[in-house]
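The following block was generated as part of the benchmark described in Methods. Ligand: copper (I) ion.
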Amino acid sequence: MSAVADHVHGHGHAHDHHGGYRGVMRWITTTNHKDIGTLYLWFSFVMFMVGGVMALVIRAELFSPGLQVVDPDFFNQMTTMHGLIMVFGAIMPAFVGFANWQIPMMIGAPDMAFARLNNWSFWLLPFAALLLILSFFVPGGAPGVGWTLYAPLTVQMGIGMDLTIFAIHILGMSSILGSINIITTILNMRAPGMTLMKMPLFCWTWLITAYLLVAAMPVLAGAVTMTLTDRHFGTTFFNAAGGGDPVLYQHIFWFFGHPEVYIIALPAFGVISQVIPAFSRKPLFGYASMVYATAAIAILSFIVWAHHMYTVGMPVTGQLFFMYATTLIAVPTGVKVFNWVATMWRGSLTFETPMLFAIGFLFLFTMGGFTGLVLSLVPIDIQLHDTYYVVAHFHYVMVAGALFAAFAGVYFWLPKWTGRMYDETLGKWHFWLSMIFFNITFFVQHFLGLAGMPRRIPDYPLMFETWNKISSIGAFGFGLSQLLFLYIVLKAIRSGEKAPEKPWEGADSLEWTHLPTPAPYHSFETAPVLK
Ligand code: CU1
């Protein structure tokens, strides 16, 4: 690493080995994008474990028919907090962590545009997480209303609901501030020669995601604020008795909620679009069409929200509009999947752990997309609404989609981030265990849903027992497999072999993801310095 680059990018790492007060203060006050990226990623992992334990409580209860592990109230609190924590605490911060690490280096910027704002964006998160956890310990406990926080149930909940609303405001602030930072950095701080259409695709997906966040998060803030005033200040936005409408809540929530799906998915697409070219030793196929497909998905994501609400009693015209608009999203998504496969076509493929997770993503995310297409069809959705089919569908998108992409990204960039290699054999074990247990957990949930098992209910008739047992066994296997991931990362950091300059045998992470035009820099560690 050159002295200049070290000064620009490596600041802070010199203090790595100071413990105690200075060590703590360094992480609290850091304005370095790499430090903040690391904080985001570790925070995300901790939340992933917390949300994961909640998932296991749910699966333990559903292992057998009858009530045995938890009472229905606590079960509802688990489904609610599992969802909120995984979406806002685990998945979103993971990709903001990737953004912090990668975007400045990929576009040749010395750091993020607003370095101190960046620090604040991160440090808001632990307080939001604390509020969510705290809600379990107040009278009435956490709100057991589902992560969607539907009215009118939310109006009747205890003070835990208010803590949750406050937490969502803070999470939203963090996301909006982070997005402003990402947009400003990408639009203003690219190195000379780094035009927008030369950026690695990961930067494009985050630029578009950041706009989605700025547009969608305030809508969620509005929804929970209206809930708050309905609860405490005598408004009746969602109360029919006062002239309001509970369905209004669902419209507002899903106007945020559907773009949120793509806020999670687009950065995952970005990671996959870096990993697949690298391990195919070919530039990304159809770069421009990838950019346009990403933008098209983002725009379409704002006009499909009511596909979550086919059963509320909307006019057939409305159902048809939202059905056609939703099926339209399959077109740009298909363009992406085609381009990933075409990138691999006749490439010099190797199958290290990041590529395994990327290919796993490709298969399973595409399957989640297809079940999404199934659910977009009104007559089918009316049958499957609020069943385990829906749960299976979005876990293919969230776990095998977003989480597998995050794993691909961690294994791919860990050598660059830490200077050390992870244990490839153990990495492959982590992939195969995750792949197998994921499918044991979630594939069978399609059958449960098709047979009519409702979601968010702690008990079920005997006929659902077999698949539930299998699903629960899979879930515990999946959970345990993630401890292996923690071990692999810690082992790499502490005693991993020194990583070569280009760890992937000629497939440096940047060279192969650009258009043929030479990028302003080729090596990760020697980013140009802006004069
Ligand atoms: Cu949706």
